[in-house]
TrEMBL record:
Organism name: Xenophilus arseniciresistens
Key word Oxidoreductase present: yes
Keyword vocabulary terms for this entry: Flavoprotein, FMN, NADP, Nucleotide-binding, Oxidoreductase, RNA-binding, tRNA processing, tRNA-binding
Record flagged with keyword Flavoprotein: yes
SUPFAM superfamilies: FMN-linked oxidoreductases
UniProt name for this protein: tRNA-dihydrouridine(20/20a) synthase
Family membership: Belongs to the dus family. Belongs to the Dus family. DusA subfamily.
Pfam families: Dus
Span of domain DUS-like FMN-binding: 27-331
NCBIfam families: PRK11815.1, yjbN
Residues binding FMN, per UniProt: P29, M30, L31, Q82, K151, H183, N223, G224, G225, G245, R246
Lineage top rank: taxon: Bacteria
Free-text function comment from the UniProt entry: Catalyzes the synthesis of 5,6-dihydrouridine (D), a modified base found in the D-loop of most tRNAs, via the reduction of the C5-C6 double bond in target uridines. Specifically modifies U20 and U20a in tRNAs.
Active site (UniProt): C112
Length: 344
């Protein structure tokens, strides 16, 4: 078990560098993607950003393999555990587990629109029950010393009024949540797939800015459609944080600029080849300690050469199932033969 870090106030964000909170920039929780191997990669690229787990359901922790779901690498901090659930007592138990395993924040998912998640009575459908969400938050706040946060949408289905999300935030904040991560789209609970829910409902960033204006004492991070430095800077003028999702996964090298661009660090001397070599060493470590096949880890770094000449050939080597019996360092050497390093 990972040692528990020093407790912090449940109302305070995890602090990072130069007075900036870690949630100034964060990588979104993404199902099947932001596992501990992905987070190890992202931490190599940014020492400052806040990282999130995939959503872990309360049922998985209450009835499944806790270590499999909560094991993390010591290098990942600061890292937040996102929970999916709607029973206050179950969430309290799982939040306590999260703190015991060393997570720096516990986040409640009130934003996932998938019908499978709705059948479990959690995710975006919880926005229709702010009093229940408040009960869930209070139950967690009462048993942990780390921040409890909520990730949600700006509305559900055809409910597009600002008052809906304003009242949701107002109710939940009274239970002790001081930080809200807002995906600036509505969630359609029927008729759209999760992918379509990330693309079809229009982005309305102005509603998140308005929440910060109306609740200046709370912290707000914005999520949805953010892909460039300029967008991040613009939102940080008005909000406390920015959360990036798929762009961070598909183009992870962007994270290598974050610490200097948004946290005031000196520019990093790290190269893509340095990152690849460190990931290769990590693959060897994981194989020795946990029997993890290298390809379960390599899949997360396939975007590392995004936009460079030869990137496709490089990806093809790391994705070649015929090479699965070869050690990772040999696969890396083959990838470099097929696609020699290019200047970034």
């Amino acid at each position: 078990m990972v040692p528990n870090p020093s407790p912090s106030s449940s109302s305070a964000p995890t602090l990072s560098h130069a007075g900036f909170a870690a949630d100034r920039l964060s990588v979104a929780p993404m199902l099947d993607w932001t596992d501990r191997h992905c987070r190890f990669l992202h931490r190599l690229l940014s020492r400052r950003a806040l990282l999130y787990t995939e959503m872990v359901t309360t049922g998985a922790l209450l009835h499944g393999d806790v270590a499999r779901h909560l094991r993390m690498n010591a290098e990942e901090h600061p890292v937040a555990l996102q929970l999916g659930g709607s029973e206050p007592a179950d969430l309290a138990h799982c939040a306590r587990l999260g703190q015991q395993w060393g997570y720096d924040e516990i986040n409640l998912n009130c934003g996932c629109p998938s019908e499978r998640v709705q059948r479990g009575a959690f995710g975006a459908c919880l926005m229709a029950e702010p009093a229940l969400v408040a009960d869930c938050v209070k139950a967690m706040v009462d048993v942990v010393d780390v921040p409890v946060t909520v990730k949600h949408r700006i509305g559900i289905d055809k409910v597009e009024s600002y008052e809906f999300v304003r009242d949701f935030v107002g109710t939940v904040s009274q239970a002790g949540c001081r930080t809200f991560i807002v995906h600036a789209r509505n969630a359609w609970l029927k008729g759209l797939s999760p992918k379509e829910n990330r693309e079809i409902p229009p982005l309305r960033h102005a509603l998140v800015h308005r929440l910060k204006h109306d609740f200046p004492e709370l912290r707000f991070s914005i999520n949805g459609g953010i892909q460039h430095d300029e967008q991040v800077h613009e939102h940080l003028r008005l909000l406390d944080g920015v959360m990036v999702g798929r762009e961070a996964y598909h183009n992870p090298w962007w994270l290598a600029r974050w610490d200097s661009e948004f946290f005031g660090d000196a520019p990093s001397a790290l190269t893509r080849e340095d990152v690849e070599a460190r990931m290769c060493a990590y693959m060897a470590r994981e194989a020795a300690e946990h029997g993890t096949p290298w390809w379960n880890i390599a899949r997360h770094m396939l975007g590392l050469r995004h936009g460079l000449p030869g990137a496709r050939r490089w990806r093809q080597v790391w994705s070649d199932h015929r090479l699965k019996t070869r050690p990772a360092h040999e696969v890396m050497a083959l990838a470099h033969e097929r696609a020699p390093a290019q200047a970034a």
